[in-house]
Prior knowledge:
Blueprint: H1 3-20, H2 23-27, H3 35-53, H4 55-60, H5 62-65, H6 69-93, H7 95-118, H8 124-142, H9 152-181, H10 186-208, H11 216-241, H12 246-252, H13 255-268, H14 274-292, H15 333-343
Helix pairs in contact: 1-11, 1-13, 3-6, 3-10, 3-11, 6-7, 6-9, 6-10, 7-8, 7-9, 7-12, 7-13, 8-14, 9-10, 9-12, 10-11
Amino acid sequence: MTRTGHRAGVAAILLTAVLWGTTGTAATFAPGAGPLAVGAAALGVGGLLQAAIALPALRRSRRALRPHAGLVAAGALAVAVYPLAFYSSMHLGGVAIGTVVSLASAPLASGVLERVLERRPLSRWWMLAASLGVLGSVLLVLSQSGRPAMSASGTTAGIGLGLVAGTTYALYSWVVHRLMGHGVGRAASMGAVFGAGGALLLPVLAATGAPLLASAQSFAVAAYMALVPMFLGYFLFGIGLARVRPSTATTLTLTEPAVAAVLAVVVVGERLTGAGWAGLAVIASALVVLALAPANVVGQRPGTPARAPAGPVPAVPRAAGAAAVRAPAVEHPVTVRAAAARRGRDTAPGD
């Protein structure tokens, strides 16, 4: 992966985080809808739309996906749980605490997944960026001290659900990236995981979604959430995951609470204290580290000899257009298999 490709991936994920950062403010315009309805509408409809645009790629990738059905199921379950936990966390613990705990815990969970499941060493640059991101997020939480206090039990439940949201977010990000590493194209990977996850959310939407139809404004909020932050956002997120590692991607999305805090000040009328502005500055420094640190380029494993990471990225396909390439091994079998052996990955049958 060239540095230009890496930076393009970083830019795609940063734009995704900006779109995601608008969801908390948007939800305030539909106060009658509960967190389960908002979450199910946003990612349920958005996930099904991901599958709809990926239908041609899904047909082409049937053979590549079949051996990884368990992986797809795990990712789909994580997709279904994430919005329910995320929006419930904000509802119970407050927008600031729910957003920050969910997003700040995601890069840590993602790094643990890569370390435990893939035996990947975590680079010092990533650990520095993750630490800065978490610190900045904590400062954002502290900046909300002037807001009406939530009950202790509500705050505790919000924090717990935020941790669930962060873990499931890290899990489905890892699953999509892993599918790409097995030779499944970007569109097919995103379509399979998010389409199945969206289908799991439909019963929740049917049971709780009536308030979203109660007024034109509530319906407009639901449509915006599904089409812009979720559908377009996750489309860009898939492009980014084809170019950066999941741990880097989830750390980059720490931009979301920063965007949410700024919108809360500008649109909702909340005040941001000095600690909040300091938190924004610290998060910005974490993004600079991730964007410029050479150790975060996909395929470069920290702590390995210089000869090991040399050459193009072995297992992650380049996102070349809407229908991503099925399997790099078709065109370059020797290069891909040798590189995959170095990373301990198996190529998908039929590649």
